[in-house]
Every structure is written in C-alpha cells, then in structure tokens.
Structure prediction request, 498 residues.
Amino acid sequence: MKTFLFLLALLPATAMAADATKNPQFVAGRAALEQALDRPQPGRHARNIILFIGDGMGINSVTAGRIFAGQARGLDGASYKLSFETLPFGGFSKTYSADKLVTDSANGISAIMTGVKTINAAIGVDDTVRTKDCQSALSARIETLAEQAKRSGRAAGVVTTAGITDATPAGAYGHVPFRGWRADADLPPDAVKAGCVDLARQLVEAPDAVRMDLAFGGDLQDFVPVGTGPGKRADGRDLTKTWLARPGARYVTDAGALSSLAPRGGPVLGLFASGDLPSPVDTDLHKNVPTLVEMTSKAIDILAAKKTGYFLLVESASIDKWHHANNAYRALTDVDELSKAVRAAMDKTDPNDTLIIVTADHSHGLVISAGSSREEPITGLVRNHGVNLPDGNGNPRTTLSYATGPGGPRDGVARPIPDEAAATSPDYRQPALVYMESAQHAGEDVPVYSRGPDSDLLTGTFESSYIYQVMAHAFSPADGPRLAKPVKTHRRRHAHGR
Ligand SMILES: [Zn+2]
Prediction:
C-alpha cells in the first residue's frame, strides 16, 4: 500500500484520468491507515475480560447483519459498521470439534472456555468423554476460564438471550457429557446414580470458590418444580430459593427489576423467560423482557462494583436460533442487538485494562447472492433499483438463501414464489437448498474481533481452543493457565511472560 502511494505521488497529475486522492473513499481509507499506524501496542495484563459470542454468527451473518443494521437506520447498509467491526484486531477461528467436521454450540464454547476441544454436545470436559456417559464425564472434567477466574479472586458472570442452561451459557459453569441434561428430569437414571447433576443445579450449587456471581437469561422452567408456573423439575427443588439463601443474593424476573438492581456485589440471578428470551422484533412478547444491551450493561456495572476484576461471557443466542428457522430478519436483528451490547461494553470499559473479544462458536449456511443495487433491502428480492432480476426459470429470487433448513423444498413441493412484500416481512423464511426441519450449522472458520490487553495475539488463523490460551495469558501473563491473582492497579503493564 505504501509503495502504491509512493508511485502515485511520482506520477504527473495529467497522466491520471481522475484524482483518486480526492475521492471520499480514498480519503476515508487514508484516515483509516493513519489510525492503524498510530495504534498503540496492546498491554499484556487484563484486569477484565468480556467474551461475546454471536451464536452461529459466521462472516456471512456479519456482512448481512451490517447491511441490515445500516438499512434499518436509513443508511447505506454495505458501508455501515457494526460496533465490533471497529475493534482493532481480527483473526479466524477454526471451530471443528473432537469428533465432527462441523461443531455444535456445546463443543464450540467448551473449546474456547477450557482450551480443549471435546465431542459435539459435551461441555466442560475433554475429548475422552463419551456422549451421555456420566462416568466418562466425571473423569474428563476441566475447569473453565470463568471458574479459574473465580478461583483467582475475580468475579465472573454469564449473560444470554437463550435459556441460561443452554449450551453456550453452560460453557461458563457446566460440565456434562450431553448438553440436554438441563434439569433433573432430563437425566437418565444411570447418570443420576453415577453422580451427575443437571446444568441448573450445577449453576446454583457450584462451590463458592467457582460459582458464577451473576447469571442472566431464560429457562425459568429448569429451576422450579413441576406445579410452580412453567416448572419442570421432578425433584421438587426450587433452585431460585437455593440461590437466594446465600448472603446478599438477589433474584429478578423482569426488565424493570433488572434496571433497578443496585450495582453492588452479592450473587444475582435473572431468569426472564421460560425457555429462550423472545426476539425484540416481537414487541408484545418482549414486554418487560430485558434486551441484550440492558443485561450486558447491568452485568458490567455489577461485576465491576466488586473491584476484583472480572470475566463476563455474553451470548447473543438468537442469531443461531433464527438461522435454524431460516428467518433471516430475526437472525440479523440479533446481530444488531449484539452490536449494541458490544458498543455498551466498549463505552463502559478501558481498552488499557479490559480485553474484549467478539466471535462465534460456529457459522450458519447463509449466502448473500449478487445482483441487488445498494439500496435494495438485504432480506428482499434481487432487484436493480426496483426491477426484479429473476432466476434461470424467470421467477423472482431472494438475495439471501440458506444451504439447509425449513425453507427448503419439501417432498418435491416447490416453495411459493416470493414477492417483495413477503420476502421483506419479519416472518419470512428465506429459501434453502436442502429441506430440514432445522437448518444445520456451517463449518467455515469464524471471525474473531478484539481490543485490549493481548488482543494482538488474536490475529491470523487459529484453533477455537487457542482463544482460551490468550484469555488465560491476559489474566496471567507470567503463569499462563494457572491464573494469577488480579492486579489491584489499573493500567499496570507487565512484560511479556514467555
Ligand atoms: Zn445452533
């Protein structure tokens, strides 16, 4: 780039058909370069780490998500920037699991939180585990980065728009050979006999030394007994009472109560729905349910109030949930929600002491096809300034489509041909090549965006499990995975440990 600029400067102006240096894109590019050249080298000690997971957010979801978010604001979508696209460092994570080419969310998060890939559907255990085999899980158990952070004296929390016992949030605190073991009724009798307990109990009953200080999400049903609202616990336990039995503990169930929580220490549990939280697109369902940005902001305030340094895992889960349904409108809405939550974290923290990482556990099979002019809605038909550019059969086609999912042709029945109003409606399912009740995850590498201490180590292409190494190093440059006690002072820089 520098050589190119140098040569450009040597050319006589008359030899140029146009003066590129005055082009606004060129000027913006030059400013971006100046900013990159002035970028300070990140430090080597993180007081805090915030790990954001856009579940199922492949690079295709980021591109489509930025276009969607820009257009939703009446701006040019293609050149719009999501908050995390402004983070200075980026790399690619290889997400495959110990046994599969394409990972699920369980191994996806487990690899990041423990440094070891496991088999699909397993969490917080190494690759010797056998699926649904309790005994094998007990010997394969590995402490997560969140638990290690707790053990080193820091605070730790987890926030999600899914249920709090879903695979990704369970990656902070859970150890199971099968992600479906969410409440006691989900465990087979032999697993109970062998000593395994469900994820809801693992979250609430973990020893003080490693228990999460804060957990916000859905899945109320896994915490309360049958006969109590949506409760599905067969053991009669009310885990919200167990949680509240600890000194200073708090429990909230709606957005109003969350917003009035004082930012002080003491464990906080927030269960805002039975199952996953609804999409913010569904405003009537979303009444009094906090948004991801509200949960993230409150979590940071509470964890920061402990003054010990903290680890926080934040998942925008619904990107994945709605991709599974081929519903691009709601999936991309949740990319935007993630962007807002990351913005809040960027505004609330200091890049000198807080490592922020934004990545995905795996991708989804979304494709952005060519043809549409820049102003055409990303969820709509392929159109050039309002004029349809049809498929090879002469029918309208959509810009977005999926490899697999419920939008596929079922039993040879062709999908109805969409019009622009149908395609841009929030409920539209984009077409899929292969019919499946639920879209399959996709296996290409996912992007990793970061800023703060050690973020320069998250460049290039690396294993998903390497992200753990960088986080552990940022918390403890000299000791690596054996996490050191948090330093008391802000902005203290350590020499690189090894
Ligand atoms: Zn999924």
Observations:
- Residues 56, 105, 320, 324, 441 surround zinc ion (CB under 6 Å).
- The mean pLDDT is 93.
- Residues 48-365+449-475 form a domain with the Alkaline Phosphatase, subunit A fold (CATH 3.40.720.10).
